[in-house]
């Protein structure tokens, strides 16, 4: 197969199904020591799976790869974080914003199509976060010399010395590594700050906390900037510094022929067990009023949650506005369930059938269950 002397994209496009080859083989057959890839997907799980796949299969050789990608609205938590501590899950459900857990450590960020993600794959030896961030700064300076951007000691990029425009995380394997970072061009800052705000106050955990910062979009500094412009500038700079072709190869993370086995990676990243079940053990203590028109309708809820499942639960009423027997039963039935509104709704509905003759009781019961589900 005459792959050695043709561009990546051309080679890929000219392959007939019969001689379809994997991305790893294509990378191997090309002489370049560096590759520039862009994902055609805007699905966070597919894109994180693509990172996993590249880390596993292409990075086994001493090769430099840069992957550019963007996502539809999503919150991305770090590997050892607690989503209930980091974000407003109810608001996210209501607004159709996805939640994902990445494999790298660090804090929580918000992505939408106005945010660019860059993943620098290298061998463990060549892993160089500062070098990568300097490359991004050089690319920015080349297209807009007046921009004042610097990298901090914790590998954030700051605009004008104050505003965060990029956050960093990384994963280091046995022989290979990757460093990935964001770049805010024109994200929705209102959504960003509202979803990265947890309604929980009495949550106790030793999960990694995020370090909140004041963010800014590059677009607010220079309205002529676009994500495409920034991605092209970074790709050019990468090609310049790594002496490789500046042509970007488009990769579809759903392409199981090019990326054998990727579907399994995607499935795992989408699973409840990975996203929620990996949360370090935590406890919540929540005090709320179920109905402000009902004097004394206050509730104290205490729960401990392990691997995302309710391990202990106590629902305390401060008056007899609801039969305490019902609450005790709910508390004991919640044990072992996922700390999630869907499972709780199923339990709550079963009770509703029992008390369906009594309208007032049903209303109070619904109000209580809705409050419990709202904190999940
Ligand atoms: N998109 C984006 N870019 C930069 N900063 C952000 C963003 N979203 C939120 N933030 C701010 O960073 C802090 C969290 O900072 P903190 O330092 O705790 O965490 C990070 O920076 C993690 C970066 C992960 C990058 C990966 C690259 C590909 S997949 S995600 C948050 O509270 C906001 O104030």
Automatic annotation (TrEMBL):
Domain BPL/LPL catalytic span(s) in chain numbering: 60-246
Keyword Transit peptide carried by entry: yes
Entries under PROSITE patterns matching the protein: BPL_LPL_CATALYTIC
Pathway membership: Protein modification; protein lipoylation via exogenous pathway; protein N(6)-(lipoyl)lysine from lipoate: step 2/2
Cleavable signal peptide: none
CC terms in the record's Gene Ontology section: mitochondrion
Main localization, broad class: mitochondrion
Role description: Lipoyl amidotransferase that catalyzes the transfer of lipoyl moieties from lipoyl-protein H of the glycine cleavage system (lipoyl-GCSH) to E2 subunits of the pyruvate dehydrogenase complex (PDCE2). Unable to catalyze the transfer of octanoyl from octanoyl-GCSH to PDCE2. In vitro, it is also able to catalyze the transfer of the lipoyl group from lipoyl-AMP to the specific lysine residue of lipoyl domains of lipoate-dependent enzymes but this reaction may not be physiologically relevant.
NCBIfam families reported in the protein's UniProt record: lipoyltrans
Protein name: Lipoyl amidotransferase LIPT1, mitochondrial
Taxonomic path: Eukaryota, Metazoa, Chordata, Craniata, Vertebrata
């Amino acid at each position: 197969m005459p792959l050695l002397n043709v561009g990546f994209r051309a080679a890929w496009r000219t392959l007939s199904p019969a001689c379809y080859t994997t991305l790893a083989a294509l990378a191997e057959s090309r002489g370049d020591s560096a590759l520039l890839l862009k994902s055609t997907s805007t699905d966070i799980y597919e894109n994180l799976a693509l990172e996993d796949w590249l880390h596993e299969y292409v990075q086994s050789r001493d090769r430099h790869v840069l992957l550019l990608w963007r996502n539809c609205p999503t919150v991305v938590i770090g590997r050892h974080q607690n989503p209930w501590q980091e974000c407003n899950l109810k608001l996210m459900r209501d607004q159709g914003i996805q939640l994902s857990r990445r494999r790298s450590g660090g804090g929580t960020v918000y992505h939408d199509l106005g945010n660019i993600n860059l993943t620098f794959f290298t061998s463990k030896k060549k892993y160089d976060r500062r070098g990568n961030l300097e490359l991004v700064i050089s690319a920015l300076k080349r297209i807009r010399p007046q921009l004042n951007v610097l990298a901090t000691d914790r590998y954030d990029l700051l605009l004008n010395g104050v505003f965060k425009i990029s956050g960093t995380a990384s994963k280091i394997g046995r022989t290979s590594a990757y460093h990935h970072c964001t770049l805010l061009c024109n994200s929705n800052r209102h959504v960003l700050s509202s979803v990265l705000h947890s309604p929980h106050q009495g949550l106790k955990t030793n999960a990694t906390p995020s370090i909140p910062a004041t963010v800014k979009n590059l677009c607010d500094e220079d309205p002529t900037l676009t994500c495409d412009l920034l991605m092209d500038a970074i790709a050019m700079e990468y090609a310049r510094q790594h002496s490789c072709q500046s042509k970007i190869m488009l990769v579809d993370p759903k392409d199981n022929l090019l990326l054998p086995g990727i579907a399994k990676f995607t499935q795992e990243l989408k699973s409840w067990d990975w996203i929620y079940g990996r949360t370090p053990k935590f406890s919540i203590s929540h005090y709320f009023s179920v109905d402000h028109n009902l004097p004394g309708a206050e509730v104290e809820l205490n729960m401990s949650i392990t691997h995302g499942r309710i391990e202990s639960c106590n629902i305390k009423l401060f008056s007899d506005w609801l039969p305490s027997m019902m609450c005790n039963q709910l508390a004991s039935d919640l044990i072992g369930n996922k700390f999630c509104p869907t499972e709780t709704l199923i339990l709550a509905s079963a009770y509703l059938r029992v008390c369906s003759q009594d309208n007032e009781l049903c209303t109070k019961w619904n109000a209580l269950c809705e409050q419990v589900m709202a904190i999940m």
